[in-house]
Design brief:
The complex is a heterodimer of chains A (164) and B (352).
Chain A lengths: L4 H7 L3 H12 L9 H8 L3 E5 L4 E3 L7 E7 L2 E5 L2 E6 L4 E2 L13 E4 L3 E7 H10 L1 H32 L1
Antiparallel strand pairs in A: 1-8, 2-7, 3-6, 3-8, 4-5, 4-7
Chain B lengths: L7 H21 L4 H23 L4 H60 L5 H57 L6 H40 L4 H11 L6 H14 L6 H27 L7 H41 L2 H6 L1
Classes of the chains: A alpha+beta (164), B mainly alpha (352).
C-alpha cells in the first residue's frame, strides 16, 4: 500500500530515491548520451506522483504537461476498452507532451499501486536555455523515439490493411 | 474515457476562488509588498546568471552570494553618484514649486485680461481655475515631499529585498516541486500547465516593461539634457516610470517639464517645442521599435480591454492597481481559458 499522498509527496524524495530515478531515466533511449550529473540535476525538479490500482494517470483528451517514467508498478495505455500497451518499471510514456501542446491521445491507468515521476515540458524548455547542447541531444533522442513509434504505427496500419 | 466536463459557472467559481486567495495574500503581504516585489524582480533577473555560475561549478548559495554582492557594489556606486544629483534636483524642484504656481497664476491673469479685452466682457480665469490650481499645488508639493520620504523608506526594502531574493533563488524550485506534489492526481498536470504558462507570460511582460522603461528613461533624459532643460534626470526618470502606465502615462510625463517651461519668467518657445519634441520622439521610438520588439507578444489583450481594465482596476486599487492591471488581466485570461478548455477535457470534449 502506498503512503498517504500528502505526506508521501512531501517527504519521499530522498537522495537514494532521486538516484534511483536518475538511473531509470538514464537507461531510457530518451536520455541516451546525456551525463548522469545532468540527469540528476533534472530529476531534482521532476514531480513524483503516487497512483492507486485502477486510478487514471491521465485521460484521453486531457492537456498534457510532460512525460512520465514508471519508478514502481505497472500501467496500461488504453484507447477505450482496447489496451494499446502494458508498461512497467523503467518505461516512460506521454512523451508527445514534451514537444506539443496537444491533448493526450489515450488513457493511462495504473493496474497496480504505481509510482511515477513527471518530466514537464516547461522544465525541458528551461533546460534548453540553460544547457542547449544536452537538451538538444535529448530533443534528438525524443525525435528518434517518436519516429520509431510512427514507423511501428504505420506498419501496424499497413498490416491491418493487408489483412482486410 | 474523458474527464467530466465543467460548466462555465463552475470555472468562474474556481477563478473567483483563485482571485480571493490572491487578494488575501496581497493583503497579508501588504506591509512588505515593495520588498517582496523587488525580491521577485531581482530573482527573476538573476536566475539565468545563477544557472550559468552553477554550470561553472559553483553551488547555488555561492553563486547567489557572489551575484548579490556584485549587484550591491554596483548599486552603491551608482547611488553614490546618482542620489546627490537626484536629491539636488528634487530640492531644486521643491524650492521652485511656489514660483511655478505663482507663474501659473500670473499666466492665468494675463490670459484672463487678454480674453476680457478681446471678448468685451469679464472672464476671471484665476477665480474659475483657482481651486484647481491650489489643488494641483498641494499635489505637486506632496508628490515631491513623498518622493523624498519614499527614498528613505526604500532603504528598508533595499535591505530586505536581497535577503528575500537569496532564499527565493536558492529554495524556490524545491518549494515549487513540493507544492506541485500536493496537488490532486487528476488535476496536477493541468494546474502545472496553467502555472507555467502564467509564469512565462508574466516574466516576459515584466522583463519587457523594465527594459522598455529603461530605454524610454534614457532617451528622455538624453533628450531633455540636450534641449537644455533643467532637472533633465528627474524628468527623464519620471518619463520612463510613467511610461509603464499604458496610453495616459506618457501624457502625464509631459506635464511637469511643460509646466516648468511655461511658468519660467524667461519663457522660450523653442524650449517648449523641444520638450514636446523629446517626449514625442521617445513615444515614437517606443511605439515603432521598443513595443513591437519587446512587448507586443507578451500579452495578447485587446487595446480597449487594456485601457478600460487599467482605468477600472486603477480606480479601485490606486497606483498598485494601475501597475498590476495588465499582468492581472493577462494571467486571468490564461487561467479562465485553461480551466474552461483544460478541465472540460479539451475542446473536443466540449464539442462532445
Amino acid at each position: 500500500m502506498l503512503k498517504n499522498n500528502l505526506w508521501g509527496n512531501l517527504f519521499h524524495k530522498s537522495g537514494n530515491w532521486q538516484q534511483q530515478c536518475a538511473s531509470l531515466w538514464a537507461a531510457t533511449p530518451l536520455f541516451e548520451g546525456i551525463p548522469q550529473r545532468e540527469i540528476h540535476a533534472l530529476v531534482a525538479d521532476m514531480i513524483p506522483r503516487n497512483y492507486q490500482t485502477g486510478e487514471y494517470i491521465f485521460h484521453d483528451g486531457d492537456q498534457g504537461a510532460g512525460a512520465a517514467l514508471i519508478v514502481d508498478g505497472e500501467i496500461d495505455i488504453r484507447s477505450g476498452e482496447v489496451v494499446l500497451a502494458h508498461l512497467g518499471k523503467g518505461d516512460f510514456f506521454g512523451e508527445i507532451a514534451l514537444v506539443l501542446d496537444v491533448p493526450r491521445t489515450a488513457d493511462a491507468v495504473a493496474v497496480m499501486d504505481t509510482q511515477c515521476i513527471f518530466f514537464l515540458q516547461a522544465e525541458l524548455d528551461a533546460w534548453l536555455s540553460r544547457a542547449p547542447y544536452y537538451a538538444g541531444r535529448l530533443s534528438k533522442n525524443l525525435a528518434n523515439v517518436l519516429a520509431q513509434r510512427l514507423t511501428l504505427a504505420n506498419k501496424a496500419l499497413a498490416q491491418r490493411g493487408e489483412g482486410q | 474515457m474523458k474527464h467530466p466536463s465543467l460548466t462555465f459557472g463552475r470555472v468562474l467559481l474556481i477563478y473567483l476562488l483563485i482571485v480571493v486567495v490572491l487578494a488575501l495574500l496581497l493583503f497579508l503581504f501588504s506591509p512588505v509588498l515593495l520588498p517582496v516585489i523587488l525580491a521577485l524582480l531581482l530573482s527573476m533577473l538573476l536566475a539565468p546568471l545563477v544557472h550559468r555560475l552553477n554550470r561553472a561549478g559553483l553551488s547555488d548559495a555561492q553563486a547567489i552570494i557572489i551575484l548579490l554582492l556584485f549587484l550591491a557594489t554596483l548599486f552603491s556606486a551608482l547611488m553614490y553618484f546618482a542620489i546627490p544629483l537626484v536629491l539636488d534636483e528634487l530640492s531644486n524642484l521643491k524650492s521652485r514649486l511656489p514660483e511655478m504656481w505663482l507663474g501659473m497664476s500670473s499666466m492665468l491673469e494675463q490670459a484672463s485680461e487678454r480674453l476680457t479685452s478681446t471678448l468685451g466682457f469679464v472672464i476671471d480665469l484665476p477665480q474659475m481655475l483657482g481651486a484647481l490650481v491650489s489643488k494641483m499645488e498641494s499635489w505637486g508639493t506632496s508628490l515631491v515631499v513623498n518622493t523624498a520620504g519614499l527614498l528613505s523608506q526604500s532603504l528598508l526594502s533595499l535591505i530586505l529585498a536581497p535577503l528575500i531574493s537569496f532564499f527565493l533563488l536558492r529554495d524556490y524550485r524545491s518549494i515549487r516541486t513540493r507544492l506541485f506534489g500536493l496537488l490532486p492526481n487528476d488535476r496536477f498536470e493541468l494546474i502545472c500547465l496553467l502555472y507555467f504558462r502564467v509564469n512565462q507570460q508574466l516574466q516576459r511582460y515584466v522583463k519587457g516593461i523594465l527594459l522598455q522603461s529603461a530605454i524610454i528613461a534614457l532617451v528622455a533624459t538624453v533628450g531633455f539634457y540636450l534641449a537644455g532643460l533643467e532637472m533633465a534626470i528627474v524628468f527623464g526618470l519620471l518619463t520612463g516610470v510613467l511610461n509603464i502606465i499604458p496610453y495616459v502615462g506618457p501624457l502625464f510625463a509631459m506635464v511637469p517639464p511643460l509646466l516648468l517651461v511655461l511658468v519660467n519668467p524667461d519663457f522660450e518657445p523653442f524650449m517648449l517645442l523641444s520638450v514636446i519634441g523629446v517626449v514625442l520622439a521617445a513615444q515614437l521610438i517606443d511605439n515603432l521599435i521598443v513595443i513591437p520588439a519587446l512587448i507586443a507578444n507578451t500579452v495578447n489583450l485587446h487595446p480597449l480591454t487594456v485601457l478600460l481594465g487599467v482605468i477600472i482596476v486603477g480606480s479601485f486599487f490606486g497606483m498598485w492597481g494601475v501597475l498590476l492591471a495588465i499582468p492581472f488581466m493577462a494571467a486571468s485570461k490564461i487561467i479562465i481559458n485553461g480551466l474552461y478548455l483544460g478541465l472540460a477535457g479539451s475542446e473536443k470534449a466540449v464539442v462532445d
